[in-house]
Design goal:
about 350 residues, alpha/beta, Rossmann fold, Elongation Factor Tu (Ef-tu), domain 3, 2 domains, six-stranded antiparallel barrel, 9 helices, 14 strands
Length: about 350
């Protein structure tokens, strides 16, 4: 996928089919839009293009909201690429760009810069200064400038409309099963294994890997059944090379027989380890049937289900007994689940 950040250079694409949005999470609603863009471009022998913004406009216009992203920017780009989008235009969003009116956006970017043949957006899409641009305006300007518009109906899960804000809310409440259904894959965070306090093996007889993560949106404190994938090992095995729906390949994968394909099962704890009276947040995972030293390696935690809240135990013995119960519960959950993973 070609990534374009400079809109001052000339752009020439064959029969551009364009979508526009923030696409945080690249959830099943976004995927529905991307599929239509790719399909339409295929019909026209054209170019499927997505326009997105960095940073998210809310971070510029309402920083006090402290908006946290579902995806790191690299993961978002990779997920969009796997959908079959060939060109991703990343517009730098600042207060100057925020003053761009909807008519100027259509004329200068969609028409003059891209020469869009089709514009495909979601049902609630709004754009331009003050979000005054609507899908009705897009249709009207399409008739004026000669491009066609398709508005894609929202996706739902159990009659609940899928949106990035809804998924953020679910993740923050620890409801990772519901969030994953809306994403179309298990919610994940990525990080690097760091040296921890060293209590897991010697004191609790359950070695854990401590993780430092750049991800912003972390599930609610507690214990989770997870799957673990290692970035470099998966790339060596050929994962992460999917090219999208235009070749009939899913943008996601499920590893049917971990750990044979480089994906392991485990149990993760998010919290402050109150039994040891810590006050710093930590992210740690116990990987089943695994003994290799992985300090410094990159991994992904794929959250499959929540087991329990974090709690303070009376001592090490009670904590150790609870950990063993958590492990058995996680194994039972993972034996029954086949969630798609972002590998």
């Amino acid at each position: 996928m070609e990534i374009i950040k400079d809109l001052t250079a000339p752009l020439r694409f064959k029969n551009p089919v364009v979508t526009i949005g923030n696409f945080d999470g690249v959830h099943i609603g976004h995927q529905k839009i991307f599929k239509q863009v790719v399909d339409k471009a295929g019909e026209m022998n054209g170019t499927p293009i997505a326009i997105t913004f960095n940073p998210h406009p809310v971070r510029v216009l309402a920083p006090e909201r402290g908006l946290k992203m579902l995806n790191a920017i690299g993961d978002k780009r990779e997920l969009i690429a796997r959908m079959g989008i060939k060109v991703l235009i990343c517009i730098s969003f600042d207060r100057e760009f925020a003053h761009t009116g909807p008519d100027d956006f259509i004329r200068k970017i969609l028409v003059e810069k891209l020469g869009a043949q089709w514009v495909i957006v979601g049902h609630s899409y709004s754009f331009g200064k003050g979000k005054k641009g609507t899908t009705a305006m897009l249709r009207a300007r399409g008739r004026k400038y000669g491009f066609k518009v398709n508005v894609v109906r929202y996706a739902t899960v159990d009659d609940d409309v899928v949106s990035s804000s809804r998924i953020r809310s679910l993740v923050l409440r620890g409801r990772v099963c519901e969030a994953s259904r809306m994403l179309g894959r298990a919610y994940h965070i990525e990080g690097t294994v760091i040296k921890g306090a060293g209590r897991g093996g010697p004191l609790l007889h359950t070695p854990t890997a401590n993780i430092s993560t750049p991800n912003e949106l972390i599930p609610k404190e507690g214990v989770y059944a997870v799957r673990i994938s290692f970035g470099e090992r998966l790339e060596a095995m050929g994962y992460g090379q999917r090219t999208g729906y235009e070749k009939g390949i899913s943008p996601l994968a499920y590893c049917p027989s971990p750990p044979a394909c480089g994906v392991y099962d485990g149990v993760a704890n998010i919290g402050k380890n109150p039994t040891f009276e810590n006050n710093r947040m930590s992210y740690e995972v116990h990987i089943f049937d695994f003994s290799r030293n992985i300090v410094g390696e990159r991994l992904r935690l794929h959250f499959i289900d929540r087991i329990r809240d974090e709690k303070k135990f009376s001592g090490i013995k009670e904590l150790e007994e609870s950990i063993h119960r958590d492990i058995e519960k996680a194994k039972d959950i993972l034996s029954k689940r086949r969630d798609p993973l972002f590998l």
